[in-house]
Amino acid sequence: MSTIVLRLRFSVKERLLRWLRRCRGAGLKTRLLIILNLHHGRSPAQTAAVLQVHRTTVYRVAGRFREQGDVGLLDHREDNGPAKLDERFLATLNDLVRSRPQAHGWRRPTWTRELLVETLVRKLGVRVHVATLSRALALIRARRGRPRPTVRCPWSQGAKTRRLNRLRRLVEGLPHREVAVYEDEVDVHLNPKIGLDWMGCGQQKEAATPGQNEKRYLAGALDARTGRVLWVEGVQKKAWLFVCLLAKLYHHYPKARVIHVILDNYRIHTGVQAAWALAQAEGRIQLHFLPPYSPEGNKIEHVWEDLHANVTRNHTCPDMAALMREVRYYLRKRNRRALRDDLNEAA
Q1: pLDDT 10s digits, 308-341
Q2: Quick one: 189 and 283 in the same domain?
C-alpha cells in the first residue's frame, strides 16, 4: 500500500468504481484510476508507468484526494475563468484562415500558427498558446493544403455573371426539340498522373512510368438533359478533333432542330475549320462561349476530373492501347449508369 494515500474504506472504493464506470471524461477517468491503483498497492512510479502519466501527476492527484476527497478529483480548470475558445474566437479564426495575412497588415503571404495568434491578439485582445490554437483549428476543421492555381477572368464580375446566367437560362428553358451539351477536350498521358493513395506504415507505393510519354486526346460533349457523354479520339489536339465531334453531334441528334454547344474559348473552337463545320451544319449547331478562364461554368470538367481519378491517376497500364481501353470502358460504363438513372426518374 502506497504511503501517499490512506487506505480506502470499502464503501469509498465502491463509490469510486461506480463513478469510474459512469464517467465519460478521459481526464476524470485517469484521476480515478490513479487513486484505485494506489489503493491496490502500486507505487507512484508504477502507477505513472501503467497509466502513462508523469509521476508528479500521481502525487498531485493523490494530495488533492487526501485533502478534498471526491471533489479533489474534479477538473479545476473551470476556475481559470471563461473559456477562450468561444464562438466569437472560433468565428474570427475561421475568417482569418479563409483570407490572407496581407489583408491584415502582414507582409508574409501564408499563415503560420504564431501569426494567427498575434492577429487574434490584435483583433480580440485574447492570447492563446500555439497548442490551444491547434485545437481551435481542429474545431473549425481547418487544414493545411496547397492553393489551386487559377487564372482570373479578364472580364468584369458583372459581365461574367451575366454570361453565365444567360447560359444557365438557355439550359433550363431548353425547348423539347433542342439539345444543349457542354464541350471540352482532355489529355490522356501514358505517364500516369500522380495522386494520393492509402499506403501501409513504412510503405511507399510506386507508379511505374514508361519514360517516353505518349498522348491521346478526347473531345467530349456532355448532354445537359441525360448526363451522357459523346466523344471522339485523336492523336493531336487540333481543330480537326473538334470538327469530328461536331460531326458526331450532328448525326447523333438527327431530330434536334438546334444543338447548342457550350464551350470555352480555346483556339481550335474559333478557327477556319470550325467555321466551315458550322456552315455545313446549316444552323443546326450553335456555339455559346463561356467567359474566359471560367471552367466552373463547364459541367463536363467534372467528368474529366472523375476520369482522371478513376483511370489515369497512378495507372499501371503498360501501353497507350491498354490505357485507352480503360478510358473507353469507364466512359461507356458512366453512360450506362446515366441512362439507368434517367429511366428511373422517368418511371
Answers
A1: 999 999 998 989 999 999 999 999 999 999 998 8
A2: yes
DSSP 99: S
> 47 and 188, same structural domain?
no
Q: What residue has cell string 478510358?
A: 327
CA angle 202/207/209 to nearest 5° reads 145
Whether residue 255 sits in one domain with residue 330: yes
Q: Kindly report the CATH number assigned to the domain that includes residue 241.
A: 3.30.420.10
Beta partners for residue 29, in sequence order:
none
**335: which strand partners?**
none
Residues 329 and 226 in one domain: yes
What is the residue-averaged pLDDT of the chain?
90
Residue 3 within any structural domain of the chain: no
Residues ≥6 apart with Cβ < 8 Å to 54: 48
pLDDT tops 60 at residue 257 = yes
Residue-wise pLDDT tens digits, 185-215: 999 999 988 888 888 888 888 888 877 889 9
pLDDT tens by residue, 280-312: 999 999 999 999 999 999 999 999 999 999 999
Q: Which of 242, 314, 346 is nearest to 285 (CA)?
A: 242
Q: Alpha-carbon distance 293 to 153, whole Å?
A: 5
Task: Tell me if 307 is assigned to some domain.
Answer: yes
Establish if 5 belongs to a structural domain.
no
Measured N-to-C along each axis, helices 320-346 and 300-307 cross at an angle, to the nearest 10 degrees, of 130
Measure the CA angle with vertex 286, ends 281 and 291; round to 5°.
145
Instruction: Indicate the pLDDT class of residue 77, thresholds 50, 70 and 90.
Output: low
Distance between the two ends of the chain, CA-based, in angstroms?
76
Domain carrying residue 39 = 10-79
CB 338 within 8 A of CB 226: yes
- Look at strands 258-263 and 229-234 and give their pairing: unpaired
- Overall residue count recorded for the chain in this entry: 347
pTM given for the model: 0.67
